[in-house]
Amino acid sequence: MRWLGPEKGVIHLATAAVLNAVWDLWARAERKPLWKLLVDMDPKQLVACIDFRYITDALTEEEALDILVKAREGKQHREEQMMKEGYPAYTTSCAWLGYSDQQLQQLCTDALKEGWTKFKVKVGADLDDDRRRCRLIRQMIGPSNTLMIDANQRWDVDEAIRWVSSLAEFKPLWIEEPTSPDDILGHAAISKALAPLGVGVATGEQCHNRVMFKQFLQASALQFVQIDSCRLGSVNENLAVLLMAHKFQVPVCPHAGGVGLCELVQHLILFDYICVSASLHNRMCEYVDHLHEHFTSPVVIRDAHYMPPKDPGYSSEMLESSVTRHQYPEGDVWKQHLHK
User: Fold this and answer.
1) CATH architecture label of 10-339
2) Which position among 36, 122, 267, 294 bears the catalytic label?
3) How far apart, in Å, are the Cα atoms of 241 and each of 8, 104, 275?
4) Which of 63, 136, 153, 217 is deepest in the core (most CB within 10 A)?
């Protein structure tokens, strides 16, 4: 098994799937949404859920426990605040590559009317096109709203620095995944070069495990940690990363594109605010507006905030009709595809 991993690739994704299901069952047994299960756990119990192997040079059990104990102050107030206001979200749905200017404008107009203030733009295919699109979005959302850009691992290191420097005038808060997700020192070089321009580096959705996050943090290679609920080894490993990020004073802004990732990761970021970071400064959770209709407990967004789930479990259960239709190879969707 270690030969197929260790702690990365398909083995780690499978581990996450199995352990996410176990956490879902645990929360259901306690009749609590997962975030509430975590929030109600004793700090020592939480620490016992974390595998500290390979990360004690960055975070010890004692340090983790100390962080959780200190965060007890104001915890009840923060929980009540989340129930009332929700956790701030940003939208990725307005500015995918390939959208026409008219489509960008319409989606931005609609999003602004719905209360969105934080927008992410995909970049990396053509610099002139990126400059035009970023200018258009910045003009539409105004100077006070937040803009982020995402290259999805497009560039080499020097190319990333040049490209983002050309986009810095549009005041992006961060450049996401500027280069290979495995290149820790490359990210560090990009971070150092872009710091004078006020642009941070965000990454993590393809980060294999807690050890890589440890090195990213130790090398000052990222200014925003983007955990993923299904990439790391479930809740357990995400707890380790949340605590390391807090120790290194780097905000966590989870990745949540894809099928059900919004439903899952909302629980982790609620726990982070209530029990770890106690801060909302430069913190937000990604939101993508598709495929939620396949879940029994879809996310609830109100005024561009994730409202805390109330149903027991990890919000990961899919509707039986959706599972049946998409099951391979018997499902109707696959039959239609295979018959073409």
Assistant:
1) Alpha-Beta Barrel (3.20)
2) 122
3) 15, 35, 14
4) 217
